[in-house]
Specification:
The chain is of the alpha/beta class and 461 residues long. The chain contains 15 helices and 18 strands. The strands form five sheets. The chain has a six-stranded mixed sheet, with helices on both faces. Strands 8-7-9-10-11 form a five-stranded mixed sheet, with helices on both faces. Strands 16-18-17 form a three-stranded antiparallel sheet. Helix 2 links the parallel strand 2 and strand 3. Helix 14 runs antiparallel to helix 15. The longest helix has 21 residues. The chain is globular, with a radius of gyration of 22 Å. The chain starts with 10 loop residues before the first strand and ends with a helix.
Length: 461
């Protein structure tokens, strides 16, 4: 049964509109707390043994984060759960710290790459992995119950963890294996998207020896992702050329994605970064199983892996599906073209800083530029158009006769040298139209025609 609140990447929406309201956040904290306390008891750890359930709460730099942090804290306390507050930190930092603090769960208040007017809630288990569907369903069921506060002597306590940023910085540094000298002599331009990485990412690269020029590190609560970060890498590209840097790194608002720029200012997307990381693991004898991409991964990436004799599989779009497929295969490297890359031999979830470090390690080990390392990936022309739709209408639109006929016409036009994909966004009211083929002009024309058919169908619905 479809879940009411949890999507592929937690709960997300526009602040002030249900469910992104303070009263819902309080109820969510209470409901999640009730489930966590119950599951702690099922593990045979009664409160009388001195172990209380505790959760770790982090956030990005959105102004609304203060409001939701307080509401979640109150909800967890009402359920008898202790709260560790770490303030603005990347999403993957919460996954890491939930493990190291032996918390029952970690919660991130963030809407990732979305504008500041959106926000959301993302949960991690005590293993540092996204919550299983059954736990999310249990939380949703609890949300339907009336809120009943525990007795006063059992209320949860809250405290701030000042050491959290330093712990995470050291963790990130430990994931990259450099020869003596680390990143000494390397010039990097780093774009933090005015987001959660602004006060940790620069230190990671500087402490490894790099000369770092920082962009997007002045958050004001409203400017997160605004014309900066992994979704807007043009400014980074210009800065790399202006500073004659070796490489540019663009993170997103919550720090789980990474896009890079080579020394000539060319944008290097997640597909290309995935190839660099996987190829480095292969050469080191550390690549386990097939590499996992998604339905959106470029055909050129699949062909490059085929030439290298490396298995490649596609999962549904969404890092949780990439993670599930990696686990099923016993594999360790996967990712999305958006820059969300999973290195399961280094971290339990996608981490933009960790991903960038793996690429930099490959550059240092090989002595090659990023431009040279991505050269084997001959990307096929691909056009992606986001069509705004009303929430919940994606399935109906994809079954619309006009849209089905338009898809068939495009597939016939492309023949065997192309792909068509329609898929709803898991985080926004968008239907993504993707067309891929060998002829750039034909691909763009087909994508525009198909997107217009979707718009017409949406307007008529």
């Amino acid at each position: 049964m479809a879940q009411r609140y949890f999507g592929t990447d937690g709960i997300r929406g526009e602040v002030g509109e249900a469910p992104l309201t303070p009263d819902f956040a309080l109820k969510l904290g209470w409901a999640a707390g009730r489930v966590l306390v119950r599951r702690l008891g099922e593990r045979g750890v009664p409160e009388s043994a001195g172990e209380r359930a505790q959760v770790l709460i982090g956030k990005d730099t959105r102004l609304s984060g203060y409001m939701f942090e307080s509401a979640l804290e109150a909800g967890f306390a009402a359920a008898g759960v202790d709260v560790l507050l770490v303030g603005p930190l990347p999403t993957p930092a919460i996954a890491y710290l939930a493990r190291t603090f032996r918390a029952a769960a970690g919660v991130v208040i963030s809407a990732s790459h979305n504008p500041f007017s959106d926000n959301g809630f993302k949960f991690f288990s005590h293993y540092g992995q996204k919550l299983p569907d059954d736990v999310e369903a249990e939380i949703e069921a609890e949300l339907e119950q009336p809120l009943v506060c525990v007795d006063s002597d059992r209320l949860g306590r809250a405290r701030r963890v000042e050491s959290a940023p330093g712990r995470y910085i050291e963790f990130c540094k430990s994931t990259a294996r450099f020869e003596n000298g680390g990143l000494s002599g390397m010039k990097i331009v780093l774009d933090c998207a005015h987001g959660a990485t602004y006060h940790v990412a620069p230190d990671v690269f500087r402490e490894l020896g790099a000369q770092v020029t920082v962009l997007g590190a002045s958050p004001d609560g409203l400017n997160i992702n605004r014309d900066v970060g992994s979704t807007h890498p043009k400014g980074l590209s210009e800065a790399v050329r202006a500073h004659s840097a070796d490489v540019g790194i663009a993170l997103d608002g919550d720090g789980d994605r990474c896009i890079m720029v080579d020394n000539e200012g060319n944008i290097v997307d997640g597909d290309q970064l995935l190839y660099v990381i996987a190829n480095a693991r292969r050469e080191a004898g550390e690549l386990q199983g097939a590499v996992v991409g998604t339905l959106m991964s470029n055909l050129g990436l699949a062909l490059a892996f085929k030439r290298d004799g490396v298995g490649f599989e596609r999962a549904k779009v969404g890092d949780r599906y990439v993670f599930e497929r990696l686990q099923a295969l016993g594999a360790n490297i996967g990712g999305e073209s958006s820059g969300h890359i999973l290195c399961l031999d280094r971290a339990t979830t996608g981490d933009g800083i960790v991903s960038a470090l793996q690429v930099l390690a490959a550059m240092v080990a090989s002595g090659a530029s990023l431009l040279a390392l991505v050269m084997p990936v001959d990307k096929c022309p691909q056009t992606l158009i986001n069509v705004r739709i009303t929430r919940g209408s994606a399935d109906t639109l994809m079954q619309n006769a006009q849209v089905i006929e338009a898809v068939r016409d495009v597939e016939n036009a492309l023949g065997e040298e192309g792909r068509v994909l329609l898929r709803p966004s898991g985080t926004e009211p968008l239907l993504r139209v993707m067309v891929e083929g060998t002829d750039a002009a034909a691909v763009e024309d087909c994508a525009n025609r198909l997107a217009e058919s979707v718009r017409q169908a949406a307007a008529a619905a």
